[in-house]
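2 proteins. here.
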Amino acid sequence: MLVPLAGYLIVDHYGKNVVHIPPYLIAERVDTIVKDGKTTYDTVYHQVKDFTLTNQLGEAVRLSDAKNRILVVDFFFTSCPTICPTLTQHLKRVQDAYEKNDTLIQIISITVDPTRDTVQMLKRYADRNNVDPKNWWLLTGDKKEIYDLARHEFFVNAVEGDGGPDDFIHTEKFVVIDKDRYIRGYYNGLDTNDISRMVNDIAVLHIAKDKKKPGLLKRLFSSKQ
């Protein structure tokens, strides 16, 4: 127990100067600001919009229902025989790593085959893979909406399409979204090294999320605790 605690203390104390913090991605525009005769430029980054889809329990859930959590998002389908089983297996390991702190992250797997992936199909897939609905949603809904989200909110596919019967998206990417809904990283969900990098980045985002938060030693030994 002392080894990870010592590592956390080092990151918590020195993180601002040493630890790499995942950057903001997907710049939407650059605003020009003129103040006191000086011109500066401010980059405005994309924030993922709120949306509503249906999870494996048949519940309508919104992105905003996962408030104050780091999000890990991927796109899959239950009948996929190639990359999806590996993606799901790797996400299960991520979920297991946060088993005792399951309010820190929210895993969101959105089907790209919503016609066949009904709530019942998602529930069977979830049960087969030991998916805990407390912090892992398997989502289905309208295909056009899902494909629009994949292309224009999460940016996992650069090829345009109409979300029609012949349109299809298949990607190995995991997307990490911070608590303010900014995209902070893309990771190859088939690469265990990249998964380790993702888990690392999630931990850093949790530490860096509140600069006013007191250091861990003060939180552990404060008389108010």
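next one coming up
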Amino acid sequence: MAKLGKRTTAARAAFAGKSNLTVEEAVALVKNSATSKFDETVEIAVCLGVDPRHADQMVRGVVGLPNGTGKTVRVAVFARGPKAEEAQAAGADIVGAEDLMETVQGGTIDFDRCIATPDMMPVVGRLGKVLGPRNLMPNPKVGTVTMDVADAVAKAKGGEVQFKAEKAGVVHAGVGKASFDEAKLVENVRAFMDAVLKARPTGAKGAYVKKIALSSTMGPGVTIDVDNAAAQ
């Protein structure tokens, strides 16, 4: 068995015996244990009592974190003419139409968020098998199929987070960086949880939120008291 390093051993010792903490306690513990040489992302994972294989139990949504994610988001926009110019002026990293489609089909995906005007969806639709599994497919339900591309780009760049339940009913996201103030991380966690709670589908039965875990990129995780997670 490989010997654990000093940092890992110390982190595990700090987390030992701790669970179902308040958001404030969990944030403090995760933040103080994030001692890597880079600025670790603080990540949240929420286990939901849903089966996303059923349409009436799918959970997906979008939330603008009040303090941003601390991550530089690369945005691609499918648009033509004035809307393409609008996207470029708003700060989109990549703007195109059929040329962008061919680039993506060729295996180059240099973006974290994809936005499209409604008239471009027949073109974007050909990329479903490529963008869908990466959760990059534009969708009107989360505001990424829109004529207001400038607003969509601004939100994506400003800390908007999309979430979608995976096969096991888990949603996860980065809610900030370890360098953030504790109060800002707490605010982001609560904003994310509020959005997940509001996205409860009609088909969800019984306990909707089963478990919440918070961790940093390189650190162990700790569970948060479900009843304490939403905004106070």
